[in-house]
């Protein structure tokens, strides 16, 4: 059964999860009010309550920390890798849309279809 405060919560993005993991490293697992405030101040997303933050962190621990390894820095490292890959995909997507003018038009010696192939890699 879902908790009442989870019913209206927006999905978490990787950036918010990364900020959450870093805030927990900074404040510990006893200061959820400060953690929620930091996340809310550092993102333009919806408000994250202390309970939302605690629940999400518990989920992240299940996702990233093995039973034998209680090292939360592993979680931060994995979230950083995921975020960097998201940013790379976004840059590739925008690079093609910015550089490409009219379909088939040569731009800097490259044709649009050549740039599209690079984007898919």
Automatic annotation (TrEMBL):
Annotated organism of origin: Cannabis sativa (Hemp)
Domain Myb-like: 11-61
Top-level taxon in the UniProt lineage: Eukaryota
Name of this protein: Myb-like domain-containing protein
Pfam families associated with the record: Myb_DNA-binding (PF00249)
Gene3D superfamilies linked: Homeodomain-like (1.10.10.60)
SMART domains given in the database record: SANT (SM00717)
CDD domains, A to Z: SANT
SUPFAM superfamilies associated with the record: Homeodomain-like (SSF46689)
InterPro entries: Homeodomain-like_sf (IPR009057), SANT/Myb (IPR001005)
């Amino acid at each position: 059964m879902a908790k009442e405060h989870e019913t209206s919560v927006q999905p978490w993005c990787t950036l918010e999860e990364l900020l959450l993991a870093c805030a927990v490293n900074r404040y510990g697992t006893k200061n959820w009010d400060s953690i929620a405030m930091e996340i809310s101040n550092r993102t333009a997303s919806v408000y994250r309550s202390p309970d939302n933050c605690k629940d999400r962190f518990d989920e992240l621990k299940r996702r990233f920390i093995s039973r034998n390894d209680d090292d939360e820095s592993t979680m931060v490292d994995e979230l950083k890798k995921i975020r960097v890959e998201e940013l790379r995909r976004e840059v590739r997507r925008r690079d093609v849309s910015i550089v490409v003018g009219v379909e088939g038009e040569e731009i800097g010696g490259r044709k649009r279809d050549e740039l599209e192939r690079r984007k898919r890699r």
